[in-house]
Amino acid sequence: MIKIRDLEKIYRTEEVETVALNKISIDVKEGEFVAIMGPSGCGKSTLLNILGLLDDPDTGSFLFNNIEVANFNERKRAELRKHNIGFVFQSFNLIDELTVFENVELPLIYTGVKSVDRKKRVEEVLDKMQIMHRRNHYPQQLSGGQQQRVAVARAVVNNPKLILADEPTGNLDSSNGNEVMTLLTDLNEQGTTIIMVTHSEHDARYSHRIIRMLDGQTVLENIMV
Amino acid sequence: MFKNYLKTAWRSIVRNKAFSLINITGLSIGIAASMLLFIVVQYELSYDTFQPDYDRIHRVVTQDKFDKDITYNSGIPVAALEALRAEFPNIQFGALRSIYGSQVTVPSAGNETGNKFIQETGIFFLEPQLFNVFQYNWLAGGPTSLNDPNNVVLDEKTAGKYFGSWQQAMGKTITLDNAIPLKVNGILKNVPANSDLPLEVLISYKTLKQHGPSYNHNENWNSTSSNYNIFALLPPQAKTASINNALLRFSNKQYESRGRNSIKTHFLQPLGMVHFDRRFESFGDHVTSKTTLVTLSLIGLFIILMACVNFINLSTALSVNRSREVGIRKVLGSNRGQLFTQIMSETAVIVGISVIVALGIGYLSLPYIKHIASIQEPLSLFTPKILGMIAGIGIGVTLLAGLYPSFVMSKFNPINALKNKMVSASVRGVSLRRSLVIMQFTISQVLIIATAVAVSQMNYISKADLGFNKESVLVLSGNGDSTFRSKQTAFKQQLMQAPGVQSVSFTSDVPSSGNVWATNFAYNNQPDEKFQVTLKFADVDYIKTFGLQLLAGRNLTESDTTKEAILNETLLKKLGIKNANDVIGKTIRLGQGQSYPIVGVLKDFKTNSLREEIKPLMISTRRSFYSLTAIKLRTHQLAQTQAAVQKIWDRFYPEYAYTASYFDEDIAEFYQQEEQLSLLYKIFAGLAIFISCLGLYGLVSFMAVQKTKEVGIRKVLGASVSSLLQLFSKEFTVLIIISFFIAGPVAWYLMHSWLKNFVYRAPLSGWFFISAIVGSILIAWITVGYKAIRAALANPVKALRSE
Ligand SMILES: Nc1ncnc2c1ncn2[C@@H]1O[C@H](COP(=O)(O)OP(=O)(O)OP(=O)(O)O)[C@@H](O)[C@H]1O
Ligand SMILES: [Mg+2]
């Protein structure tokens, strides 16, 4: 599903050049659950942003479902992204002005789903995430774990083939964290590909494979059994 | 999708209550203000546009070129009418003469002397041919109703005023100035108020021919009165320029043969300019220059601009806070277009609310604006035209205020947006915000300076030494007919016996008035001078009553006819005479008439409004011209004295309506338009300042939130409150000073040109400029101060924890 080769991303400011990704190459197959680990600043988030088509690499090749997307412009990336990729963030990133229901509904609006179908689909997902009873609440009225469940619901509502999660449990206590990990595992078992950045060895054990990074390069891959 | 936009828009308005409130307040005041100004401007522009042949109607006016100056007159010699008809058979001409302050007596069952009405305006002698030029609606009769002498046509409301209803008025007889019976022969539907021909009482022109002398109606080529106008309807597709050429040849032919000391020419003034060319008079109550209308429109536009600037500033400032939302939406698949539309819809919602509030404000303040702008017409906000205009303003403001913020926000990079790293975008925003604040303060300061200058000029005028006494002089207007004159001497004796009366004078004109009565003259048996002399006729008590000052010679001696003359200084100056005593004993001859000995010279006083130079003047006696009674009252017990005066009047002149006014109030009316303008400036300068402070307050509040942490850290490191205040106010102070350097010259230029309207003007003092800048800095500091002090006094630990 994902095949990147010699991908390079360099941040240039006036004084310094930071090589965030240094000719990195990675493959992820459909249905895999991959964890990315590494020390702070090694380029994990940068990699995830590129995989999520939020950012473009400087050089290298990025095949997404066998299509070269490294040179896509913003409009094309947005188009591909909204149909194929869901995101879960450490800081939940829900929109404060919208209710739980409306937050989850948002991706469907952007992909142009009709209102009746949206309602059905959102309720289905909220039900599955066991957050249905909070559908009319605003994000601030929810606990961190509940907020992250809403974020996961929002990430999957479009039935994406790929979910990218950047430290999804980083702001959660262990029991809420485990709950989110279980949700992700369930999704993966139903066929969704998942790539997750984490600092927690515990969480990483939910995955099939751990990619360890250092200074913008992969240093090690552990296959879990 | 659109419903979703509106929903989020509404939520974000509610969430940012303070900013929304600032935006809505500013925008609604701005929209209301410009809406009202546009209504006023629109109303002025609509004058006489209801005439179907508006574009083809012209007035034939007069330009008189003397040695040094050119005078303009909206009138034309009466004799020109038939000559024009002979020369231009394709053009329809129609003439009318307006008379002012005439009395109409309406028979009444209970009242022997009838009900008396003074028609200050709206009363005309009018040719039936005028209805070939102008179209009106008739309730009874028609243009032919004015074919015969002693016929009158009334408009519906005047007929109602006289007789209760127009149906009852038809066929009745009324009396003009106690002398001329007139049969009501037709009724005109009320002429709209936005007309410079306020037709109310229309008397057949043939009546005027029979009573010419009573109404100064000379059918010759020599005298031109602005009360006598000729209007022309040009054939379709006629070229104004070629007709004007023909008129020039016509004028030369007519006047060359008659010998002349000036070059008099006639030309066409389009009906579309009658209301706007202040060189000429109109029969309406005011002529407004297009410059004034442009100024008002610009002020309206500026006020809206300022409100939009607030919106842009606050939105771009707030966008930093909203970047996370924008980022999330982008990650979830929103494209730029959708985000752009979303933020535009938020703007549209705020503007929509503001428009509704503005309509409310406009509805409540319309009566005041109508009053200030002296609009009589019942104006409504809810006409299709005005509603259309408001919708236009709404759309314009939405685009103006929304485009930039929408553009900036929709361009946010999602990754940076999610990290709240909007550094590059906000740096750009800051310099834009600075320029916009400069623009706002430039506009406010121009308005402050303009207001200060206008107010000081108005004060100057009201305090200016006019050279005569205008306080507690009561002026009674009557008319100069023989019955009136025959009782004058006895009337005066009675008045002088009233305890509060100091002196009484009969005259043709008060010292300073809008009247112009001028004629050719010759001094000391020399050939005619190349300028005209203004005439006022008055009895021997004129000098005493108005406190005028003799420089040389003596007062006139009492006489019913013209025997002697008194001149003013300006006349001597124009004649090139230095010593006033030199003219005593010399003679002056008016027109082609008799010569009179000069017995005195008066110190100059202002013969007209301060817009005009003092005119060369001659005063002499002549009872047949006395229509005014000027009474100087002792200042105590004015009300009793006035009642006593009225009682005496009613005893002497039961058939004449009593109309009195105080001279100083009449003089104040000269400057009514300027007063109104200066009031408008005051109001709108106030609004402009308010709106810019509102914006400043918003920006500072935002800054205070942004800088909470910085202020906290600085305080922990030992910064004093005053140094923190500086942190907030320094930038704005610099911006205000920069705007002053733009505003100062602009205001100077504008007000310099405005003051040129006045011959006598207050100096353009540097204090206006200094107070503008000091004032704006103070206002800004007060605005900034409150927020800044709160931020500076906040507990630093709390501030730091909030991160
Ligand atoms: N916008 C940017 N401009 C400049 N440098 C950046 C930018 N974003 C990231 N970097 C740099 O790129 C490198 C990789 O950053 P990245 O955010 O990918 O690290 P990370 O592995 O996700 O770290 P963490 O575990 O702390 O989240 C870091 O050295 C960072 O300083
Ligand atoms: Mg990271």
What descriptors fit this protein?
heterodimer; A: 225 residues; alpha/beta; Rossmann fold; 6-stranded mixed beta sheet; 4-stranded antiparallel beta sheet; 7 helices; B: alpha+beta; 13-stranded mixed beta sheet; binds adenosine-5'-triphosphate; binds magnesium ion; MacB_PCD (chain B); transmembrane (chain B); transmembrane helix (chain B); cell membrane (chain B)
Protein described:
The complex is a heterodimer of chains A (225) and B (803). With 225 residues, chain A is of the alpha/beta class. Chain A has one domain: 3-Layer(aba) Sandwich (Rossmann fold), CATH 3.40.50. Chain A is 34% helix and 28% strand. Chain A contains seven helices and ten strands. Chain A has helices at residues 44-51, 74-84, 100-110, 115-128, 144-156, 174-189, 201-204, and strands at residues 2-12, 17-28, 33-37, 59-64, 67-68, 85-89, 162-166, 193-197, 209-214, 217-223. Chain A is globular and about 50 Å long. Chain B is α+β, with helices and mostly antiparallel strands and 803 residues long. Chain B has three domains: 1-47 and 286-428, no CATH class; 54-274, no CATH class; 479-658, no CATH class. Chain B is built from 24 helices and 25 strands. In chain B, strands 1, 2, 3, 4, 5, 6, 7, 8, 9, 10, 11, 12 and 13 form a 13-stranded mixed beta sheet that branches. In chain B, helix 2 runs antiparallel to helix 10 (290-331) and helix 22 runs antiparallel to helix 23. Residues 422-427 of chain B have low confidence and may be disordered. Chains A and B meet through helix 2 and helix 3 of A and helix 1, helix 10 and helix 13 of B. Adenosine-5'-triphosphate binds next to strand 2 and helix 1 of chain A.
Brief synopsis:
The complex is a heterodimer of chains A (225) and B (803). Chain A is built from seven helices and ten strands.
Task: Outline the secondary-structure elements.
The complex is a heterodimer of chains A (225) and B (803).
Chain A: E1 2-12, E2 17-28, E3 33-37, H1 44-51, E4 59-64, E5 67-68, H2 74-84, E6 85-89, H3 100-110, H4 115-128, H5 144-156, E7 162-166, H6 174-189, E8 193-197, H7 201-204, E9 209-214, E10 217-223
Parallel strand pairs in A: 3-8, 3-9, 6-7, 7-8
Antiparallel strand pairs in A: 1-2, 1-4, 4-5, 9-10
Chain B: H1 2-15, H2 17-45, E1 57-65, E2 70-73, H3 80-87, E3 92-99, E4 102-106, E5 115-119, E6 123-126, H4 130-133, E7 138-140, E8 151-155, H5 156-163, H6 166-169, E9 173-176, E10 180-188, E11 201-204, H7 205-210, E12 228-233, H8 240-256, E13 263-270, H9 271-274, H10 290-331, H11 336-372, H12 384-410, H13 414-418, H14 423-463, E14 473-477, H15 482-486, H16 488-497, E15 501-507, E16 518-519, E17 521-523, E18 533-537, H17 542-545, E19 550-553, E20 565-568, H18 569-575, E21 587-590, E22 595-602, E23 617-620, E24 628-633, H19 638-652, E25 660-662, H20 663-670, H21 672-716, H22 721-755, H23 766-793, H24 796-801
Parallel strand pairs in B: 6-11, 8-10, 18-23, 20-22
Antiparallel strand pairs in B: 1-2, 1-12, 1-13, 3-6, 3-12, 4-5, 4-9, 7-10, 8-11, 9-10, 14-24, 14-25, 15-24, 16-18, 17-21, 19-22, 20-23, 21-22
The complex binds adenosine-5'-triphosphate (ATP) and magnesium ion.
The site of magnesium ion has 2 residues of chain A, from helix 1.
GO cellular component, one term (chain A): membrane protein complex
Protein name (chain A): Phosphonate ABC transporter ATP-binding protein
GO molecular function (chain A): ATP binding; ATP hydrolysis activity; transmembrane transporter activity
